[in-house]
Amino acid sequence: MSTAAGDRLGMGDGPPPHAWSQPPRRDGVADRLRDALAKLLLSARMQRVLTTLPLTRGKARREAAALFDLCAGFIYSQILLACIRLDVFALLAERSRTAAEVAALTGLGQEAVTRLFDAAVALRLLSRRSGGRYGLSLRGAALHAQPGLAAMIEHHGRVYRDFEDPLALLRGAGADSKLAGYWAYASDADPTRLGDDAVAAYTALMAASQPLVSSQVLDVYPVAMHRCLLDVGGGDGSFLTAAAARAPRLQLQLFDLPPVVARARDRLAASGLAHRASVHAGSFFSDALPQGADLVSLVRVLHDHDDAEVMQLLRAVRDCLPADGTLLIAEPLAGVSGSEAVADAYFGFYLMAMGRGRPRTEEQLAAMLRAAGYCQIGRLPTRIPMQTSVLVARPCGQTGGV
Known about the structure:
Structural class: alpha/beta
Oligomer: single chain
Order of helices and strands: HHHHHEHHEEHHHHHEHEHEEHEHHEE
Strand content: 5-15%
């Protein structure tokens, strides 16, 4: 896209606030009915009626329970954290056990274990067995099968400290938050100067949670049809390692900050991939991306950055892609039915505490891609959109479908 066209979209010096937001819509009949219903529900008398009428009491009780869950969410999350730190899911994955058995194995008192396990049953993390034993529920088994979730749960201790005063964050205190310091590249004017100690924790966290994302991306996009994959912001090489297992002939490139690249080099070598992988150090906001790849991936990268930075990165990727190249974007999207709480609530506030970035809808990203010179933009359905969605785009001027 020409500079003049970019300026018309407000991108000459970066897009203005909300440049990619959806246009406001006028209130319709459905909106007026919702407003009227909301006013009606403000009446305590109407609340009592709804909880007693046979046709409405089930819904009313479910809404009351959901509201209480929001109020009690912090305590629920701490019960989950206690289970993680006590290694409950690993202990019960071997076989079901009584509270006394677990107390003997962990050193925690039997009464305390019973209280914790009863709470975990209530949260459907555990289930009761005969003889006073406890075992994994379906939810608990699913959690234990994904080790990256435990790392995220531990990480939330830092998040909670930042959210002690959510209004302070909303008023702009994110730059001084714990999360801003944790994600050091978000607050450093020149992240290429960061040392290993500044990137070690977040690189390990991303690596632990990467399997949750990689399999979904690689299940819907056949990387084997490409000759070379460049993973921008590729961390320790976790995504490249997973992609290499799907495509034995695929050449690999990784671009990230210097201390992160050092970790990636070690991991790729340990995985037996040194002969077909190259790593490149730098910042994608000040250094050119390496050439030669016909597929570039941005896995959980764009939502970490503000709009102007995203546009700069999309153009940099466009410049490094050949005529037959493809851009692959993987991250949680806002506005996905059934996943609104993950993107708009969790990531929306997490990124605010981090100090930059925000979740975006498919439509917003597509608009940014078009402005950066991409066409044939499409979304591929993933198994669990709550964790990640996949967008594919190609430089304008190509023929054929996505």
